[in-house]
Design goal:
The structure holds two protein chains of two kinds.
Chain A: H1 2-29, H2 36-40, H3 46-55, H4 62-74, E1 80-81, E2 86-87, H5 88-123, H6 128-142, H7 145-159, H8 175-213, H9 216-223, H10 228-250, H11 252-266, H12 271-280, H13 284-312
Helix pairs in contact in A: 1-13, 5-6, 5-8, 6-8, 7-8, 7-11, 8-10, 8-11, 9-10, 10-13, 11-12, 12-13
Chain B: E1 5-16, E2 19-31, E3 36-40, H1 47-54, E4 63-72, E5 75-76, H2 82-85, E6 93-96, H3 110-121, H4 126-139, H5 145-148, H6 158-170, E7 176-180, H7 188-205, E8 208-213, H8 216-222, E9 225-230, E10 233-239, H9 240-245, H10 250-257, H11 266-269, E11 310-313, E12 316-318
Parallel strand pairs in B: 3-8, 3-9, 6-7, 7-8
Antiparallel strand pairs in B: 1-2, 1-4, 4-5, 9-10, 10-12, 11-12
Helix pairs in contact in B: 3-4, 3-6, 4-6, 6-7
Classes of the chains: A mainly alpha, B alpha/beta.
The structure holds adenosine-5'-diphosphate, iron/sulfur cluster (SF4) and magnesium ion.
């Protein structure tokens, strides 16, 4: 098992290298660089500009710059943000917790809704419950997060004034008050992202359950007199979760995409909003590092999915 | 003596997009204690639906028991809820299904799948259930039962899986085993072994067996009594010797003629007499005899009036207008 994980991690190395190379080239070819601001600043003499450009190797050929970047990365040097004037890794570590907190809670919320609703709907197909669940899932799936986000802000912050609409990392409270405030300000972003995820996940879970329910071994289980609940949980759900796990893992990139939008709307200082502001200010090292972190997270979730897959399905041997 | 199981006028219908499909349409079958009854007929005759209706294992909806009684040990099962039937499933009536490859849950060990039946119906500890499971696996001759009990279904061959299914069906020592084409999906050599095993188990535990098959050869070897089904109806019923010695219904005669015979040389074997045509679709079936379109002896009355089951010798009943004294000059 640990050998399998190790091997999978080693296999991930070439793909991460390829991803980083593509990212690097795309960013290098994109218009604008971190010093474009200096070029238009009359207070900086051209000689100084040239010296700075030479120091950071900005005029070297792309492959040299890439090798430089890679070498620095491998030594734990993630680069320097010209805009924030701090090291990129410090910056990311500052921003990552907020993102993980919001995305993680949203995923948990989505699972807590999707699994029971999808399972129950599948046990009573075309019942009233099923039809309502299907309709809501369809609506939730069709409404983009930027729309529901703004709608939530209008209702719960502007009109009702129940929840704050700006997320802050420096809450002026301690102890239990701090915890409550953290939860309160996360409610809207988590709900927006979580409900959106739940909508598509409910549909996965329901259809995976329906695929399994009509299989022969479910009839075998019913012929043992086990009772509906045991049959559904022990025989149907366990098998239906196998494709669901894969689908959830494959959806992770979309989840991060959704998180970027959600962070913008609620002004959550996470790595999603860091990415947007860095792109707008041509802060290339940060853009590079954040995208790379996203890539690593996606690879990591795929690995987790494969391990879960092997645990759920004994026919797959993780060797 | 009252029969162990008595199916009376069973009608099981499915609602489909094209209309009501009358898969089982007025079937009477009874099984005595300790008896082996074969139910035979081509694919699509309603054998599986009849068997599954007994414990309400058909998909409902679209399926529905539209009429009839299923009396098991004096109690009608049709009005019972699924929860009430759970007390009878596996404990009183065990099931063996046709497809050993798909009838076991791939993510649970075979031991868990046998033991869960024991744990459900008997007050046994986990450890006792495991011991009983191993004992059952030994009975059905699975080598190295102590080790194999922890294996998953994909680690067994088709024949071995069917042995596991038999062990599972027998675990709670039911009074009746319903085996739905238990050998159809298996290789010919394995088929004989599985039938022998079923026979052994029956001799040992003395339960009644309802063996569903479409192979007349299997019937001749195992049955005491035979019920022939065609298009959702019983067309003939007789003790096995009477059925083979004096088959009366043209459909039964056709089935018997289609048995491959080893005593003929290969030239004759290739000229097996198959019954022409196929089982009709059971949505709005034709009036009269459902076999008429394929019957060599069909008369005018056959497409007008439905032949009812009538006794032609003790224990021998059939549903055909041929030689019906009540029909008089019409035939
Ligand atoms: N779930 C179902 N929905 C609709 N029709 C069904 C269903 N199950 C069985 N049938 C129909 O019932 C008829 C009898 O099928 P079955 O009992 O499986 O035949 P047999 O076991 O004799 O081969 C067939 O025409 C089949 O199409
Ligand atoms: S009733 Fe008529 S059609 Fe039907 S089997 Fe008898 S002879 Fe043939
Ligand atoms: Mg069948």
């Amino acid at each position: 098992m640990s050998q399998y994980v190790l091997r999978r991690l080693l296999i991930a190395v070439p793909s991460l290298l390829a991803i980083s190379l593509v990212l690097f080239v795309v960013l290098a070819l994109a218009p604008g660089d971190p010093f474009s601001e200096l070029a238009t600043n009359p207070n900086v003499p051209p000689e100084v500009q040239a010296a700075l450009r030479a120091k950071f190797g900005l005029d070297d050929p792309i492959y040299l710059r890439y090798l430089h970047w890679l070498n620095a990365m491998l030594h734990g040097d993630w680069g320097f943000s010209f805009v924030s004037r701090m090291n990129v890794d410090t910056l990311i570590l500052q921003r990552l917790p907020a993102t993980l907190y919001v995305i993680g809670s949203a995923q948990i919320l989505a699972l807590l809704i999707a699994i029971p609703v999808g399972v129950y709907a599948a046990t009573k197909p075309y019942s009233l419950f099923d039809q309502i669940a299907n309709t809501l899932a369809f609506v939730g799936f069709s409404l983009p997060t930027f729309f529901t986000g703004i709608l939530f802000i209008l209702i719960f912050s502007v009109t009702l004034d129940w929840l704050p609409f700006v997320y802050t990392t420096d809450i002026k409270a301690t102890g239990i008050r701090w915890v409550l405030e953290m939860i309160r300000q996360a409610i809207m972003p988590v709900a927006v992202l979580g409900l959106f995820q739940a909508a598509s996940m409910t549909r996965f879970v329901r259809s995976a359950m329906l695929d399994v329910i009509r299989l022969d071994y479910v009839t075998t289980a019913r012929a043992k007199g086990l009772g509906q609940t045991t049959v559904i949980i022990k025989h149907v759900m366990r098998n239906a979760m196998i494709p669901v796990v894969t689908l959830i893992a494959l959806q992770m990139p979309a989840v991060f995409g959704g998180a970027i939008v959600t962070e913008q709307i609620f002004r959550i200082p996470g790595i999603g909003s860091l990415l947007i502001s860095s792109i707008l200010s041509n802060d290339t090292p940060v853009v590079m590092a954040v995208t790379f972190v996203f890539a690593c997270l996606v690879v990591l979730f795929n690995l987790i999915a494969d391990v879960l897959y092997g645990w759920l399905d004994p026919r797959i041997s993780l060797r | 003596m009252a029969p162990l199981l008595e199916i009376k006028g069973l009608k099981t219908h499915f609602s489909t997009d094209d209309g009501i499909l009358q898969a089982v349409d007025g079937v009477d079958i009874s099984i005595n204690k300790g008896e082996t009854l074969c139910v035979v007929g081509e694919s699509g005759c309603g054998k599986t639906v009849t068997a599954m209706s007994i414990l309400k294992l058909i998909a409902m909806p679209p399926g529905r028991i539209a009429a009839g009684q299923i009396i098991f040990e004096g109690r009608d099962l049709v009005p019972l809820t699924s929860n009430q039937l759970d007390e009878i499933r596996a404990k009183e009536i065990g099931f063996i299904f046709q497809e050993p490859m798909t009838s076991l849950n791939p993510v649970l060990t075979i031991g868990e799948q046998i033991a869960e039946s024991l744990r459900r119906h008997e007050a046994v500890t986990k450890k006792q259930a495991l011991e009983r499971t191993i004992e059952m696996l030994k009975l059905v001759q699975i080598p190295n039962a102590e080790g194999r009990v922890h294996n998953y279904p994909h680690q067994f061959s088709g024949g071995m899986r069917q042995r596991v299914m038999i062990a599972m069906a027998l675990a709670c020592k039911p009074k009746l085993i319903i085996a739905d084409e238990p050998t159809t999906a298996l290789d010919v050599t394995i088929q004989a072994q599985i039938l022998d095993l079923l026979q052994d188990m029956k001799d040992r535990f003395g339960m009644a067996v309802m063996l569903i098959t479409h192979a007349m050869g299997v019937v001749a070897e195992t049955a005491q009594r035979v019920v022939v089904m065609y298009a959702g109806k019983v067309v003939e019923e007789a003790p096995v010797d009477d059925l083979f010695g004096d088959p009366r219904h043209p459909y039964t005669q056709g089935l018997i003629r289609s048995i491959p015979r080893i005593d003929l040389d290969s030239e004759h074997k290739t000229r097996l007499e198959a019954i022409g045509g196929s089982v009709p679709i059971l949505i709005n079936p034709p009036v009269g005899c459902r076999f008429a379109p394929r019957c060599k002896f069909a008369m005018n009355v056959c497409t007008e009036k439905e032949p009812l089951l009538r006794e032609i010798a003790p224990g021998h009943r059939m549903a055909c207008h041929l030689g019906d004294p009540n029909l008089g000059a019409a035939s």
